[in-house]
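Researcher: Here's the sequence for the chain we discussed earlier.
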Amino acid sequence: MEKSKDKEVYAFGIVTEALPNTLFRVELETNNKMIIAYLAGKMRLHRIRVLVGDKVKVVIDNYGEKGRIVQRL
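Model: Thanks. This is the structure I predict for it:
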């Protein structure tokens, strides 16, 4: 099973709520849908802080309910 970065779907959103265990509720800009997103490993490693109101870049999983925050803008 190969995972290709070419197939990843990126979206931009705004963090609306900070949840426990580095989970965040993010409102997507494209369709105003709310998803639950977690921090990517490199963001945890470098201790990049994400606060409510921050604009973030999210990789959406195939099922559309969860995402991974990969960049804070």
